Amino acid sequence: MSSISKPFYAVIAGVGAGTGRSVALRFAQAYPVVLLSRRPESYNPVVDEIRQQGGEALGISTDLTDPNSVKAAFETIKRELPGRQLAAAIYNASSRPSIKSFLDTTPDDLSRSLVGNAHGLLNFAHSALPLLLSSVSATPAPPYPPTLIITGATASLRGSARFGAFAAGKFAVRALGQSLAREFGPQGVHVAHVIVDGVIDMPLTKGWPANGGVEDGKLNPDAIADSYWHLHTQHRSSFTQELDLRPYVEKF
Amino acid sequence: MSSISKPFYAVIAGVGAGTGRSVALRFAQAYPVVLLSRRPESYNPVVDEIRQQGGEALGISTDLTDPNSVKAAFETIKRELPGRQLAAAIYNASSRPSIKSFLDTTPDDLSRSLVGNAHGLLNFAHSALPLLLSSVSATPAPPYPPTLIITGATASLRGSARFGAFAAGKFAVRALGQSLAREFGPQGVHVAHVIVDGVIDMPLTKGWPANGGVEDGKLNPDAIADSYWHLHTQHRSSFTQELDLRPYVEKF
Amino acid sequence: MSSISKPFYAVIAGVGAGTGRSVALRFAQAYPVVLLSRRPESYNPVVDEIRQQGGEALGISTDLTDPNSVKAAFETIKRELPGRQLAAAIYNASSRPSIKSFLDTTPDDLSRSLVGNAHGLLNFAHSALPLLLSSVSATPAPPYPPTLIITGATASLRGSARFGAFAAGKFAVRALGQSLAREFGPQGVHVAHVIVDGVIDMPLTKGWPANGGVEDGKLNPDAIADSYWHLHTQHRSSFTQELDLRPYVEKF
Amino acid sequence: MSSISKPFYAVIAGVGAGTGRSVALRFAQAYPVVLLSRRPESYNPVVDEIRQQGGEALGISTDLTDPNSVKAAFETIKRELPGRQLAAAIYNASSRPSIKSFLDTTPDDLSRSLVGNAHGLLNFAHSALPLLLSSVSATPAPPYPPTLIITGATASLRGSARFGAFAAGKFAVRALGQSLAREFGPQGVHVAHVIVDGVIDMPLTKGWPANGGVEDGKLNPDAIADSYWHLHTQHRSSFTQELDLRPYVEKF
């Protein structure tokens, strides 16, 4: 990305074929974007897609659950995008354990959810927040308030039967998000949490019969990305901390 | 408005110098807008402003608490905008009683809040919803899903001491909004409720020392309007039912 | 009730064959109780039952939606129970409009719900709160902190499709309850709101197939009354503002 | 405890000088109680106190964050209380990390909170739930529905600035609690979560100036225990899943 001339960039953690990809494509219309996923197979197709559309993208293999891996990723960013400021950081990673009875839920199941959801956010935000804070007063000024957006789910608000481990991880992420919003909002960083309440339309869910298979019964990830972009552009006098997104036909 | 050629329009109920004005100006960039307020002094300056910017606007004196007055307003709309479809309806009216001890809160105080908030929404939505439903399948298709947006407040979520009557009205509005979202969402109409959590920056609040007088410590109503517009443009696979808006420095 | 010797009493508004009756019977184990219902047919059987069990009870025909009727009822109480202090006031009245589409919900439907739920509470609490406040520092001291308990429902928390008018009234009641708790709690009066989430087992609901007709699939009103009594007995260092009650098999 | 003749017992995890002690004393009025704490210094004084009052108590040194330690504790219980049925299990353990900026919150801080709160509950409930389920249909029948009560805090509902790690752990516990309630409620086990919103009056907090030092401005743990006992006694047709407890003067 040596040719990048724009002074700002965005970083998206957790990029696959769904929301992460759409968010990356959307933010790439405005910024160079850095994509963090565990495996290159996850981000490479998106990097290619962005480049084909004339955008700039960099993929970095990152284990978000490992603080050192995340630190190394941000070192790479610093080296590859020298002198650039972080405009937006999106935490879209999630770890969803199997759905099963509480009695079959092992400590490992719970750990994987807590680490894959909450520790991932902690690690990511530890690196991203100092950069976002520094962007608040950067010269030139950022086009919009520096932003951290966190992807939540139905399970962020509700512990359903057989979803205990997953809900524990998502509740914990929401707790961290609220705490970050209250600590860093007054310093000019916008922290928002998005409740995605429904099935996302992506290759993985192709056969899922969400909402009886009705058209638009699954969330279009490009539509999700539009709302992420809107959150990023909100004026600091009017920040959203939390919003929900769901298909028009979703029961709630 | 005889020269209006666009096939869609928006209607905003409760237009004064704050959120209503900004929303009207924002939606007037895309649609002819109809402004409903009790007194012409409230909407006339906004109508003028929209026209000066090349937009189309019509003000109608309407008592939202009176079903017949609201019906008459929509009759006028039908006559003045023949053949046009309703794209968006914004309920921004509010009735805020004095803040006082419960023991000093009269049945009239409570009535004014319940009628001025909840009955106003009932009356407005009674006329707007059939039009929004008809727009869902209109030809040509509407640019975005037909939308009803309702303005809420901190008191929509929390009954503070000495705010009982106000909170009762705002809670009731939120109840209606949820009920409408669940009934009409599956029919294609997007119903959203916005929690405005803070002081809005408008002539009335000029001297109010919100958030210690810090810059952007009050909600810029144009910023609010940007989020209303975003809600209107959301794809039906990804509707927001509720979001909050507050200044970056607001305690919450 | 001229023979009443105990210095405290309780008043229950909204007494029929369900929760109100059970609460009256439960509180009558400790206090003379006053029962307010619109019609004598509603409270007379409960008054008889209490007397048969050795308790003291007084029924007063009261229209809770009419401030003057409520004032008259409390005048009667003052006359009939001279020198006695109010220990607990239970607001169990409710007005449940028909469940129907929003488009068929008339302003009258909404009014009946708002008046029958929220105005009823306002009127009742206007008379009860000064008495409860006076009991805080009465001599002899009350056995428990003076208490106002309000009956809520699923619709207090959630505006379902076709339940708009009912939810509006119940949301408004909850708003008032929170406001009262925050204003009068620090003055020593305990204000609690109970979410009854399910069908109550009473003559009216005999044939209702709640939870597939399973045993205890409807709320036993005596069990509800036990929780009301517990709320009343809570120490002022540990007040509950809100709790939910639902059958073990209820989906939520 | 070889002389125990009652067929039921209760187990309390997390017993020190505050809520755990009071809950143990309260439940010891009805059942033999087993107290689990990491160190004997925590439970020994409570065991002594219970015995002095004629109750039966057994303390077991248990590391709730270690599945094997918890399993071993329940093996001990099985051996020491042969043929007895579990009537109530109270999860009162908590791990509260230092309050500090997110940027100073280490992965270890977060881990300690997640493990000390959520894993502790998982481990405890893994052993307790099968016993509670078996008690549902035990002969003789249990006096009340078998119960699991979980202690929460303000941070269970709200992620405040500088409380991120603590809130993450408490949110995760609440998620598990909801999931357990929804899975095991229909099987007859009552799972309740208690939001303790305020400072508890105990040796540790003696000098804390809660609510300006006003009398009863801190939660009396005996009062908390009364509400736990009430939860345990609720009829299965009328279970509370969540309630809040706070001093009458607490701001909320």
How does this model look, in words?
- The structure is a homotetramer of 252-residue chains.
- By secondary structure, the first copy, chain A, is α/β, with parallel strands linked by helices.
- Chain A has a single domain (8-245), classed as NAD(P)-binding Rossmann-like Domain (Rossmann fold, 3-Layer(aba) Sandwich), CATH 3.40.50.720.
- The first copy, chain A, has six helices and seven strands; from the N terminus they run E-H-E-H-E-H-E-H-E-H-E-H-E.
- The first copy, chain A, has helices at 19-28, 40-52, 67-80, 107-136, 164-184, 221-233; strands at residues 8-13, 33-37, 57-61, 85-91, 147-153, 190-196, 242-245.
- Chain A has a seven-stranded parallel beta sheet, sandwiched between helices.
- The longest helix of chain A is centred in the middle third of the chain and has 30 residues, at 107-136.
- Mean pLDDT of chain A is 96; it is low at 1-5.
- The B-C interface holds B 67, 101-103, 105, 107, 110-111, 114, 118-119, 122-123, 125-126, 129-130, 155, 158-164, 167-184 and C 67, 101-103, 105, 107, 110-111, 114, 118-119, 122-123, 125-126, 129-130, 155, 158-164, 167-180, 182-184.
- Chains A, B, C, D: Pfam families: adh_short.
- Chains A, B, C, D: This is Oxidoreductase-like protein.
- Chains A, B, C, D: InterPro entries: NAD(P)-bd_dom_sf (IPR036291), SDR_fam (IPR002347).
Which CATH class of chain A is shown?
Alpha Beta
Classification by helices and strands of chain A:
alpha/beta
- The termini of chain A sit apart by 44 Å
Mean pLDDT of chain A: 96
Which oligomeric form is depicted? homotetramer
Instruction: Predict the CATH topology of chain A.
Output: Rossmann fold
Number of strands of chain A: 7
**Strand sequence of the main sheet of chain A, in spatial order?**
3-2-1-4-5-6-7
Question: What's the alpha carbon Rg of chain A, rounded to whole Å?
Answer: 18 Å
The CATH homologous superfamily name of chain A equals NAD(P)-binding Rossmann-like Domain
